[in-house]
Design a protein that fits this description.
Blueprint lengths: L2 E5 L1 H8 L8 H10 L4 E4 L13 H9 L5 E6 L3 H10 L3 E4 L15 H16 L4 E6 L6 H7 L3 E5 L1 H6 L5 H17 L3 E5 L7 H4 L5 E6 L1 H10 L1 H13 L2
Helix pairs in contact: 2-3, 3-4, 5-6, 10-11
Amino acid sequence: MTALSVNVNKLALLRNSRGHNYPSLEHFATRFLELGVQGITVHPRPDERHVKFADLPALAGIVKNFPGCEFNVEGFPSDDFLQRVIDCQAHQCTLVPDAADQLTSDHGWNLHQHGQWLQPRIARLQEKNIRVSLFLDPDPQQIKLAAATGAERIELYTESYAEAFASSQQAHITEQFCLTAQAAQAAGLGVNAGHDLNLQNLPQFLAIKGVLEVSIGHALMVECIEQGMEHVIRQYLRICAAY
């Protein structure tokens, strides 16, 4: 079974637009967990335009009330970011190579360039029993470098798959993800995935064997508005349970 972690960034963006705690991230994180999702994901940016670093302790505390569920914090591994993740005792930290002013994540790590730089930052998190995942493009050639950093998992950046979905390029693009996932698993790395996955394209993506977790936020929130929260989460959990 693939675990579903719901990214609540867009709820935070809506909250921040009015300057009050409405909608409440704590309330909706609790509701998602009550509906059966296996985790909550956040990606605080340096400018805190959606999730704020002050949100992390409360969300981490809520997740801990649901045994077996995990709190995943994504972001660029600056010293301040790493300390915030350690302070809230996240279960998993997904390291992403974002610039400070990045609108949204749009590429994975170049480990030829940054692999050695990441190693002490990964070790710092692992010393506090926080699992580390590296955000990667579908590139089998980087897998040995990913394993060499000491990270436990990779997260496949799936925008290219989402863009190719239902097009003539889908089979070719999906094959690159399959090869990367297979290489990661052979190297002892767990495989997560996320970015632009939705109810339509997720089932075919999860035909890739062994995906441990998907993190979904933007599309899921839109689908909740269109179809209703409970209905959407039931569909996602049904898909994830089948793989």
